[in-house]
Automatic annotation (TrEMBL):
<dbReference type="Pfam" id="PF02518">
    <property type="entry name" value="HATPase_c"/>
</dbReference>
<dbReference type="GO" id="GO:0005524">
    <property type="term" value="F:ATP binding"/>
</dbReference>
<keyword id="KW-0902">Two-component regulatory system</keyword>
<dbReference type="GO" id="GO:0030435">
    <property type="term" value="P:sporulation resulting in formation of a cellular spore"/>
</dbReference>
<feature type="domain" description="Histidine kinase">
    <location>
        <begin position="224"/>
        <end position="429"/>
    </location>
</feature>
<keyword id="KW-0547">Nucleotide-binding</keyword>
<dbReference type="Pfam" id="PF13426">
    <property type="entry name" value="PAS_9"/>
</dbReference>
<dbReference type="InterPro" id="IPR003661">
    <property type="entry name" value="HisK_dim/P_dom"/>
</dbReference>
<keyword id="KW-0472">Membrane</keyword>
<keyword id="KW-0812">Transmembrane</keyword>
<keyword id="KW-0067">ATP-binding</keyword>
<keyword id="KW-1133">Transmembrane helix</keyword>
<dbReference type="InterPro" id="IPR036890">
    <property type="entry name" value="HATPase_C_sf"/>
</dbReference>
<dbReference type="Pfam" id="PF00512">
    <property type="entry name" value="HisKA"/>
</dbReference>
<feature type="transmembrane region" description="Helical">
    <location>
        <begin position="7"/>
        <end position="25"/>
    </location>
</feature>
<feature type="transmembrane region" description="Helical">
    <location>
        <begin position="45"/>
        <end position="64"/>
    </location>
</feature>
<dbReference type="InterPro" id="IPR005467">
    <property type="entry name" value="His_kinase_dom"/>
</dbReference>
């Protein structure tokens, strides 16, 4: 029975029962009065009907008022709740519709339910196309396994964030930052929201910054490298002149000449490799070899600053990391260059390579001017430099590159005593 029927039924029952009681009572009263007070009896007979209507009228008014008031109140509460719900829905709808990131609602079996305008713009597909297509066709073959892993983890209730390259409608690769967020409804995960940001342009700018910073270091190293090459050339010239004068062939001289030529070859090759425009390629890399090459190049710069540059390799066996060799060289050249530039006299810069559980640790320690606390906290900020000719990009780029390699950089320094830069990188088998 509905609430309205129940109320009407109760009022009707009340009316019938009170009517019946009134009939029985008023009859008894009439009987008693007819025998004793005739005048009162006529009066009662005349007005008993009106009395009944008045009393039941008042009672019915009170009852109906009470019930309908409660009913209307709860109805009004319901309407208010509905309005609030609609407002909330509009809130979320705005977040979805006007989001500057692409938002996709995806079911447990990987089907798109809805997508916002930015999502359509990033991928170049309309919502209807996306609803009917296999999303995995947007993912390059070698990335499918990875994205599936993230999707299933999100379905287990763990939100995921990662970077991935996707194809748009024109089959052009876009670099995106993507997250999967589980959708809980009644404590059950019914699918995921995927939030997508196109970072292709900012990634390109970053790469441009890294490569122009690299060209800037090469420019800065050129003078000292040319100087470094001139020394063996002078000695070669001396030996050739000697051999020309004496017209003799001396094996001892020949050996020295060969080693000088080899040194020129090594330094100039290193410079060329560093300057070559290459695609970023993460390969299995021997970290000691990278540091040896950095030391070879930076020896010239150290001579230029009349400083000593030492490499202390504490590893017993070669240790490999996954890295882009050129980018790592760029980092360590930047760090060593900063150390050499911080040195005034009796300068010494020591590179120490060691291993600690699962990571390699490279320390670059100098006895230069040091950095005070206020400046220490600003290191890595783009264009922050205390040098007349510094770009202030050396450390910015180094931080970025080490982060890309899954590593860390830590800088400790004491004013007037020196600075220690510690880089750690994850080791591979
Ligand atoms: N080993 C160090 N000793 C003292 N100061 C340092 C050292 N390394 C970095 N710094 C400080 O950090 C600042 C930023 O370094 P960063 O390499 O980013 O730029 P820069 O060296 O000034 O310019 P560029 O790298 O283009 O030559 C430097 O200007 C310097 O003040
Ligand atoms: Mg620098």
């Amino acid at each position: 029975m509905t609430e309205a029927k129940r109320i009407a039924f109760r009022i009707a029952v009340f009316y019938i029962i009170s009517g019946a009681i009134w009939i029985v009572l008023s009859d008894n009263v009439s009987m008693a009065l007819s025998q004793q007070k005739l005048q009162l009896y006529f009066f009662f007979q005349r007005y008993k009907g009106w009395l009944f209507i008045l009393v039941t009228g008042i009672i019915i008014y009170i009852l109906v008022h009470q019930r309908t008031y409660r009913l209307l109140l709860s109805q009004r509460e319901l309407v208010m709740k509905d309005v609030k719900l609609q407002e909330k829905t509009q809130h979320y709808q705005s977040l979805f519709q006007y989001n500057t990131d692409g938002v996709f609602e995806i079911t447990r079996d990987g089907k798109v339910v809805s997508v916002n305008p930015e999502g359509e713009a990033i991928l170049g597909f309309k919502e209807d196309d996306l609803k009917h297509m296999d999303l995995s066709s947007l993912v390059p073959e070698n990335e499918k396994e990875r994205i599936q892993k993230y999707f299933f983890a999100a379905l287990q209730g763990e939100p995921q964030i990662y970077e991935i390259t996707l194809f748009n409608a024109k089959r052009v690769e876009r670099i995106t930052r993507c997250s999967f967020i589980p959708i809980y409804i009644n404590e059950e995960i019914t699918g995921v929201f995927s939030i997508l940001k196109d970072i292709t342009e900012s990634r390109k700018n970053e790469e441009l910054l890294i490569s122009s910073e690299k060209m800037s270091i090469i420019g800065q190293l050129a003078a000292s490298v040319a100087h470094e090459i001139r020394n063996p050339l002078t000695s070669l010239k001396g030996f050739v002149q000697l051999m020309d004068q004496t017209k003799t062939y001396d094996e001892k001289y020949m050996e020295i000449m060969m080693s000088e030529i080899e040194r020129i070859n090594l330094i100039s090759s290193e410079m060329l490799i560093l300057g070559k425009k290459q695609d970023v390629d993460f390969v299995r890399t021997d970290i000691a070899e990278i540091l040896n090459q950095v030391v070879l190049l930076m020896k010239a710069e150290a001579h230029f600053h009349s400083a000593k540059l030492k490499f202390n390799n504490k590893l017993d066996n070669p240790v490999f990391i996954k890295a882009d060799p050129n980018q790592l060289k760029q980092v360590f050249i930047n760090i060593v260059k900063n150390s050499l530039e911080a040195i005034s006299s009796d300068g010494i810069v020591v590179l120490t390579l060691s291993r600690e559980d699962g990571r390699v640790r490279i320390e670059v320690e100098d006895n230069g001017v040091g950095i005070d606390e206020e400046r220490l906290s600003r290191l890595g900020e783009p264009f922050y430099s205390t040098k007349e000719k510094g770009t202030g990009l050396g450390l910015t780029v180094s931080f970025k590159l080490i982060e890309k390699h899954g590593g860390t950089i830590d800088i400790e320094s004491e004013k007037e005593s020196g600075t220690k830069v510690t880089v750690t990188l994850p080791v591979i088998d």
